[in-house]
Amino acid sequence: MIAADNRPDGRIDPKGVDAGKAMEGFFAIMALWGASREEARRILGEPAERTFQRWRAGEVAAISRDTLSRVGYVAGIFKGLQIVYGDAAQADEWVRRPNRALGGQTPLERMAAGEIVDLAAVRQYVDALRAPWS
């Protein structure tokens, strides 16, 4: 779980975040979604290859605010899908189905486009889906 101090401006302060747990959760979600290694790397903002390998191996000292935001978007998308779909397998399969609202891309393809706004777009879409259950 990501535990961070909230700032007055609404942003997350990465101090106090358990970066190892954040990355462990991220890679667990990527495995459930069947994301390729390259998709996972692009979702994280294309960190250096060596850094990515260390993170995958569980060697995480600290992560940037950008990386924390990306992991947070992924966690929010995952949680939202678990709320929308009563079946975990259906929720996890959703990211691999083409979606007209995303220009025919799968949500995973959109998230892996590399920009944080792509993650935000998928999160916004999932939040709209779950609105009736909120």
UniProtKB/TrEMBL annotation:
Residues 20-76 form the Antitoxin Xre-like helix-turn-helix domain. GO terms for molecular function: DNA binding. Residues 81-130 form the Antitoxin Xre/MbcA/ParS-like toxin-binding domain. This is DUF2384 domain-containing protein.
